[in-house]
User: What shape does this take?
Amino acid sequence: MNTRFITLFFVSLVSAEAQLTVEKAAIAQTAIQVGDTRTPVFSVKVTGTSSDYFIQSFRFDLGSSPTIYTKVFNTMYLVDQSGVTIALSELSSSTIIQEGSNYFLTLGTPNYLVSPDVAKFFTLQADVYMSIKAEDLGFREIKLVPYGVYAVDINGVEPSYSNAFWITQNLVITGQAIPEPSTWTVFVGIVALSIVVARRKVRAL
Assistant: This one.
């Protein structure tokens, strides 16, 4: 077998190799309002080649501050392009995993079918807390980790990935913040209550 034939044979095998491609997709807007429900916060396009693939899970990096799930987002949903919710999670210390300094969310999607050369779009939606303090508003970042879309083929074999890197979506949380409580107002209320009680005692006498 000459060198030229070996080279052509190798190229043929590589071109037929099954791959999964994950790309960032657009969301309607990146300004997220306090009190929003099921608002899109992240979206990706997934395409497979040469085989059917069954997606098992998506893994997201929610950043280094726990306030993203304790004070900003309370529930997240993974929705396909037909609008069907294929996974959801109420965010808490039992569903969010801390690794190092960052917090991660994994959403299971057992055996979600992606046929070869047919693009599928997946959107991460979130419910936003109705009340958020001013210090928790502003810039937030959600990332799909490298190899964050875990899939296997019909034989249970994981594909190669044509672009395994972080996919990042920047967001801005906006809206009316919770007003800081007024110590003076509370104090005046206590004084007024004391006066009313004192008057009632005098009348009783």
Notes: Helices lie at 3-15, 67-72, 183-204. Residues 183-204 form the longest helix (22 residues).
